[in-house]
Each structure stands twice: as C-alpha cells, then as structure tokens.
C-alpha cells in the first residue's frame, strides 16, 4: 500500500508498505530518519518515541498504515517544532492559546507548523530546542541511544506542564529506559529545561 503523511512538517509518501510494517521501520529505513532508535520492538523501552498528532507514541507499535494523513514529529524535527510552537503560542501549561491545564497542541495547531526543508531531515543547522540544550548542559547524554525518545517525551511533558514536580517528571519518563546514566542527570536536564522555560515567559 501507499502511505501519505506529514513528517517534521513535510508531506511524505511511502510506497510498497506491507501490512505489518511499523512506523519506526518506515521512518528509519524508508525516510532516512535514524533518530528514533530500534531497540525492544515491544513498546517497553521508549527509544523509538515520536509524536503522532502531538501525542508521544512508541513508533515500533504503530502500523505504518495507521499514520495515513496524520502528522509525525521525530527528534530530527523537534527543534523546529519547538520553535514554531514558541512563535505561534501553541502548547505550554499556560501558554498563549493553550490556557492552563492544556492537554498539549491541538491537531489543527500541530498542522500549522512547517519545518524548513533542510532542518527536518537531519536536525542539523538549527538552534537546539530548550530541552535539547538542557540535556547537553546537564550532561544527561552518555551513549545517546535512549536520548531521542527521552527528548520527545520531555518536550511533550513541558508543553503540558511548564512546572513539573519530580514525581511528574519521573512519571512522564517512566516508559523510557536508559542503561547508562542512572537517570539523575536526565531528571536534572528536565528540571533545567523547565526553569529556563519559566524564565523565558
């Protein structure tokens, strides 16, 4: 079958997709977007997390056919997605257009952002998002295999809750496994990103 969907703000088409093919496989092998990692293939580790219509999902569990006409954001497009959200006031716990208690970006709002052509393929040449920079500054990256999924999940958390408690952070990241860091620096990174986000408002 042929699947048409939006990836990081670009219309994409995947041909000859077989029934059991996962979104993760399509992103990595057909679209050349290796940021989402293939680890457990059972939705247990979170390393393949992407945003599907604004909601974090394990792309290994999503059949490619399910994304027809939908919007996907991978770690390669995260910085541009965050920038567009900031510029247009979408998301955030009390951001413009979101209102306190917002459940994230609406489907209509997510469809409004557009990545620049060079940015969405590699993620290179763009200013990092607040969350990405915080992970670097807090030393939350070691081997990096789990990092893309953690970044996607942390970004979604901070979009919904700009001042998360430690319990909120732990709960949001509970589906993302890391074998290297011991998690403390990851928690520090999310705290740092939250603090910087609050200062920017």
Reconstruct the topology from this structure:
Elements: E1 3-7, E2 10-14, H1 23-30, E3 49-52, E4 55-58, E5 71-73, H2 78-88, H3 107-112, H4 117-122, H5 130-137, H6 147-160, H7 166-172, H8 184-200
Helix pairs in contact: 5-8
Give a structural overview:
A hairpin with a 2-residue loop joins strand 3 and strand 4. With 201 residues, the chain is of the alpha+beta class. The N and C termini lie far apart (46 Å). The relative contact order is 0.15. The chain contains eight helices and five strands. Helix 5 crosses helix 8.
How much of the polypeptide forms β-strand, as a percent range? 5-15%
Helical fraction equals 25-40%
Q: Count of helical segments?
A: 8
Radius of gyration: 16 Å
Sheet with most strands: strand arrangement: 2-1-5-3-4
Please give the number of β-strands: 5
Low-confidence stretches: 91-105, 115-120
Shape: globular
- Helix and strand sequence: EEHEEEHHHHHHH
Mean pLDDT score = 86
Describe the structure in brief.
By secondary structure, this protein is an alpha+beta fold.
Which terms summarize this structure?
201 residues; five-stranded mixed sheet; globular
